[in-house]
Design a protein that fits this description.
Number of strands: 10
Bound molecules: NADP nicotinamide-adenine-dinucleotide phosphate
CATH architecture: 3-Layer(aba) Sandwich
Strand content: 25-35%
Oligomer: single chain
Length: 167
C-alpha cells in the first residue's frame, strides 16, 4: 500500500490558521476529491473537527486521537489511537493507496514514512499557525508540476506537484 500525503500549502508552507484553511480554490477541492475518492483517508482529530460536514463521503475515514473515548459523532468515522494503527486499519481496506490528509501535526509525523506527496503549491506568502514540513529535496524527487493561473474563481495561482521518495 502506497502511503501518500495530500496537502495544499503556501509558498512559505502555511496550511491553516485558527483551525481553518486560508483559501478557497475550487480546482484544488476537485483534485483532492478525485484523487482520494474510494480510498482510506487518515486525519488528525483537529482536522476532523474542522470539516463542516463530518466524515468525507465515499472514503474510509480514520481519525487519530490520543483521547480514549473521544466520540466523532458519526458512525462512518473510525477512531484510532495512533498513526501506526491508522495505517494498519487502512491496509485492511485492501486499497492500493492511503492518503494522510493532515493537519500539521499528522503531516509532521507521517512524512518520514510516506512514499508520495501530492502538494498543491499555492503561490502566495500568507500568515498562519500551522505548517507543512519543508520537503527535503535530498530525499524527494519532483515527478510532476502542473501550474495554473489565478482567475475569477481562484485568488492565487497554484500548481499540482507530485513528489516521490527517492529510492
Ligand atoms: N492546507 C491543507 O491541505 C490542510 C489539510 C488538513 C488540515 N489543514 C489545517 O491544519 C490545521 C489542523 O492541523 P493541526 O496540526 O492543528 O492538527 P491535526 O494534525 O489535524 O490534529 C492534531 C491532533 O491529532 C491527534 N494526534 C496527532 N498525532 C497523534 C498521534 N501520534 N497519536 C494519536 N493522536 C494524534 C491529537 O488529537 P487529540 O488532541 O484529540 O489527542 C492532536 O491534537 C487546521 O487549520 C486545518 O484547516 C490544512
Amino acid at each position: 500500500m502506497i502511503v501518500s500525503l495530500i496537502v495544499a500549502a503556501s509558498t512559505n508552507n502555511v496550511i491553516g490558521k485558527q483551525g481553518q484553511l486560508l483559501w478557497n480554490l475550487p480546482n484544488d477541492m476537485k483534485f483532492f476529491k478525485n484523487t482520494t475518492w474510494g480510498m482510506p483517508v487518515v486525519m488528525g482529530r483537529k482536522t476532523y473537527e474542522s470539516l463542516a460536514g463530518g466524515p468525507l463521503p465515499g472514503r474510509f475515514n480514520f481519525i487519530v486521537t490520543r483521547q480514549a473515548g473521544w466520540d466523532p459523532h458519526h458512525e462512518k468515522a473510525k477512531v484510532v489511537p495512533d498513526l501506526e494503527q491508522a495505517l494498519e486499519a487502512a491496509r485492511e481496506t485492501d486499497c492500493k493507496e492511503v492518503f494522510v490528509i493532515g493537519g500539521g501535526e499528522i503531516y509532521a509525523e507521517s512524512i518520514a514514512i510516506a512514499d508520495r506527496i501530492y502538494m498543491t503549491r499555492v503561490h502566495a506568502v500568507v500568515e498562519g499557525d500551522t505548517w507543512f514540513p519543508v520537503i527535503d529535496e535530498k530525499q524527494w524527487d519532483l515527478r510532476s508540476d502542473r501550474g495554473f493561473p489565478a482567475d475569477e474563481k481562484h485568488a492565487y495561482s497554484y500548481s499540482f506537484q507530485v513528489w516521490e521518495r527517492k529510492k
